[in-house]
Amino acid sequence: MTQSAVKSERAAEAVAQHIEALILEGALKPDARLLPERELAERLEVSRSTLRDGLKILEARGLLVSGGRGAQVAALGAEAITDPLIALLARHSEGADDYLEFRGIIEGAAAGLAAERATPVERERLRDLMERMARAHEAEDPTAEGEADAELHLMIYEASHNLTLLQIMQALAGVVRADVLQNRQRLFAIPAMRDVLYAQHCKIGDAVLAGDAAAASAAALEHLDYLRAARQELSAADARLDLSMRRLNGGGLQATNKR
């Protein structure tokens, strides 16, 4: 191998390592599309051939996928996890309880870490999210509030600066969003519950912004425990209603008496 070939190979690996680091730290998120080849090569100060070699390395590692519109960050199997899991949670209430228990375990830790590690930039983003949520809450817009809710939870994982937590929750981002929106559709029907959820999110955000790790962790756990209890209450109410309907019509199997 010639000296120029060695230099080219090293440059391509350097390109791959740089982009891989951005993916790992969450700066480049799943499905994010990279800049066009010419612009990306200029930004990284390498030739287009070196850039292409670097992107091929990342494709071989399963971190990038290429298409007609250029390279984009791979979803890292997110669909294979989220789609079946969303369907499972929709069908089985006990699965939803386990999911919320899982969220509580790791989100309490993530919130505490975020309070300790969040950068000024992340704190500003968190303030913006809380303001968006406040406006949506005031406007009684559950869809907008639900989106801000999901983004706030994912923001907590980013601000934790724990790469494993971040990668796991980015893979589960679809589940988080679906769960938040489904929760809101059901829970908003219960008097005063909407205000409780909003107050809980403010408590989590305020604790993170204040740098109070213990309070942030406790607030996150309180929130997820509340959601679990509320979901169980809703499931029990649904079961009672179903039983009443079955008793009323014989489960749909009883013949009607004709006179």
UniProtKB/TrEMBL annotation:
Gene3D superfamilies linked:
GntR ligand-binding domain-like, Winged helix-like DNA-binding domain superfamily/Winged helix DNA-binding domain
PROSITE patterns recorded: HTH_GNTR (PS50949)
Q: Mind listing the UniProt keywords for this protein, alphabetically?
A: DNA-binding, Plasmid, Repressor, Transcription, Transcription regulation
Source taxon at top rank: Bacteria
Pfam families to which the protein is assigned, alphabetical: FCD, GntR
- Please provide, alphabetically and separated by semicolons, the GO molecular function terms listed in this UniProt record: DNA binding; DNA-binding transcription factor activity
Q: Where is the HTH gntR-type domain?
A: 9-76
Which SUPFAM superfamilies does this UniProt record tie to the protein? GntR ligand-binding domain-like, Winged helix' DNA-binding domain
The record ties this protein, via PANTHER family, to: PYRUVATE DEHYDROGENASE COMPLEX REPRESSOR, TRANSCRIPTIONAL REGULATOR, GNTR FAMILY
Stated role? Transcriptional repressor for the pyruvate dehydrogenase complex genes aceEF and lpd.
Q: What is this protein called?
A: Pyruvate dehydrogenase complex repressor
